[in-house]
Design brief:
By secondary structure, the protein is an alpha/beta fold. The protein folds into two domains: 197 residues, no CATH class; 350 residues, Alkaline Phosphatase, subunit A (3-Layer(aba) Sandwich). 49% of the residues lie in helices and 10% in strands. It is built from 23 helices and 15 strands. The chain has a seven-stranded mixed β-sheet with strand order 3-11-8-2-7-5-6, with helices on both faces. The longest helix has 29 residues.
């Protein structure tokens, strides 16, 4: 016991333990990331040399641990995300999620990935404990020992710098900023602060912005337009899209009756909510500049300018993101979770209740835009569906791990079926008004549910998958609207076979549905017009760059799925 205690209280042991835990994710990423042999060697050699060299500057390695604590945090975060996604450095979006995700979502997620959380707490918690031992010890590392280690580390660093040059010479796609941990994570960490600053200054930046929107329709002509934004609903688990289980009975019947326009080749441009929803509500994809989202108002403001009453009801919690800012441009705003405990659950049916109340009190000549932001099938799937809904039992899974894929899928399917019910309720309410009206629905992104041997789960990974990108896009129109605007409805129907990007077309389509024109409106992006021209589909990567689908990291298994399901690629 004394020998064991002496070993772990030794300053040399603490020195090497600190270097080891800092380098651990670098070693792991040799096996998880793509790259040439030189890149893999550099992934370990360069960080190891730097950590080793830095640690020789301190007589007590415990002090070195705290000087490099930020990198220990990066390392722990990286290991958890490797467990969750299987690849890729900690993304900008992941850092943003830390400050924009509500505590309930965090609790739901962490409770299902507890093995990785326990691992990093043990490994890096032990590092904290040993650092305290080091600082309290009278022992120090001998100067001669530290000089020897410094020379070895310097030699390793020299070799690593040669490797770095070789990587740049032999691989034109190589980048230290993108490919080597912790440089990539440190860059992303800094970039996340830039994004937060831009979001915080949004109101100031758009204070003088105007769409210069005009309406081609006379005032006093009542119409209702509803945009339902889904959450984490993938098309592949909807019977409307050929899924083997009857998860969308309401939508299936509407399509069978010829009342629904279903776009079967629709993809999202982002697998994260905080990018996809702003891209749906603005014209940034058609402008080929996602960062323009920080400088202009959205769809709701355009409807305001055109004389519409605008309503935004959200079943998500406020998180001071662009989604909140764009939604709060509406004249009437309700966040269902504003005045309830953080742990309380609200089902999407609440949005239907709010819509029913608003319709009951509408003015007879009112033109309305209603945006409903649902909670859809966001994990934990079991909590998205009320007890007793439908005929399917609520499955039990002790953890969100591959052995419970069948139960996870059943819970997800239940959430999809509940979303189908909610959409049906909205359409039913709008139909009863007897007004010219359109209801549009799409989801922000899809989801992985351990679908293949990659064992991917959830969404928002830096590198997307087919399942995260393929989403539903559909339109329902009242008889009064189709009779009044037959050319627009026929255009919607005629374009169903096209490959579309939801984030590129929705802004322009919703404007044209309502007869609105703005400075940024592109008629060739509107599904309601015969001049619609399918544009090249793009993906918004972690650095807000717009990449073609074949350049965003999709694997061959994803490409095969696109082809198998008759989805255009790229």
């Amino acid at each position: 016991m004394n020998r064991f205690k002496s070993f772990f209280s030794s300053q040399k042991t603490i020195f090497w333990y600190t270097v080891a835990i800092l380098t651990l994710p670098c070693v792991m990423m040799v096996f998880t990331e793509a790259g040439a042999t030189l890149t893999h060697l550099l992934r370990v050699a360069l960080p190891l040399a730097l950590y080793w060299l830095v640690m020789t500057l301190f007589k007590k390695p415990g002090k070195g641990f705290w000087w490099t604590f930020l990198f220990s945090f990066f390392a722990a975060f990286q290991i958890v995300l490797l467990y969750l996604f299987g690849e890729s450095p900690v993304a900008v979006d992941m850092f943003l999620n830390v400050v924009t995700t509500n505590p309930t979502e965090v609790d739901e997620l962490l409770s299902q990935i507890y093995l990785s959380v326990i691992f990093v707490f043990v490994v890096y918690g032990l590092g904290i404990g040993l650092s305290v031992v080091s600082l309290r010890s009278r022992e120090v590392l001998a100067a001669t020992w530290r000089r020897t280690q410094r020379r070895i580390a310097a030699c390793l660093l020299g070799g690593a710098l040669l490797l770095l040059g070789a990587c740049y010479l032999t691989d034109r796609n190589f980048s230290l900023r993108d490919d080597i941990f912790p440089f990539n994570v440190a860059y992303n960490f800094g970039l996340s602060f830039d994004r937060l600053n831009k979001s915080a200054n949004y109101q100031k930046n758009v204070a003088d912005f105007s769409h210069h929107a005009t309406s081609s329709r006379p005032a006093g002509q009542a119409e209702i337009y509803v945009l339902i934004i889904g959450e984490t609903i993938r098309a592949d688990n909807m019977s409307l899209y050929g899924y083997g289980h009857p998860t969308t009975p309401t939508l299936d019947s509407l399509e069978a009756a010829g009342q629904l326009a279903v776009y079967r080749d629709a993809l999202t441009a982002s697998n994260t909510t905080h990018k996809s929803v702003p891209a749906l509500l603005t014209p940034v994809l058609s402008q080929h500049d996602f960062n323009a989202v920080y400088r202009q108002r959205g769809l709701i403001s355009a409807f305001n300018e055109a004389g519409f009453s605008t309503v935004f009801y959200s079943n998500q919690r406020r998180n001071h993101s662009l989604i909140d800012f764009l939604g709060c441009e509406a004249r009437e705003i309700t966040f269902t979770k504003d005045s309830i405990p953080i742990t309380a659950n609200v089902f999407d049916e609440k949005l239907v209740d709010l819509l029913a109340q608003r319709i009951a009190h509408r003015d007879s000549t009112e033109r309305m835009l209603v945006v409903l932001h649902t909670y859809g099938a966001h994990f934990d799937y079991r909590d998205r569906v009320p007890d007793g809904f439908g005929n399917n039992p609520k499955p039990f899974y002790p953890s969100a791990t591959p052995p419970y894929r069948e139960q996870l899928t059943q819970a997800y399917d239940n959430a999809v079926q509940y979303t189908d019910f909610v959409i049906g309720q909205v359409i039913g309410l709008i139909r009863k008004t007897g007004l010219p009206a359109v209801v549009a629905y799409t989801s922000d992104h899809g989801e992985d549910i351990y679908d293949d041997n990659r064992q991917r789960f959830l969404h928002a990974s830096p590198i997307p998958t087919y399942y995260q990108l393929r989403v539903p896009l559909l339109f329902w129109a009242s008889v009064q609207w189709t009779e009044k605007y037959p050319a627009r409805w026929q255009a919607i129907l005629s374009h169903r076979s096209h490959a579309v990007s939801t984030n590129a077309v929705l802004f322009h389509t919703m404007l044209d549905i309502a007869g609105i024109r703005t400075d940024h409106m592109r008629i060739d992006y509107a599904l309601t017009d015969t001049r619609f021209t399918p544009a090249r589909r793009l993906y918004i990567n972690d650095h807000n760059e717009l990449l073609p689908l074949d350049s965003c990291g999709l694997k061959q298994i994803d490409i095969d799925l696109f082809h198998r399901n008759n989805i255009k690629f790229p």
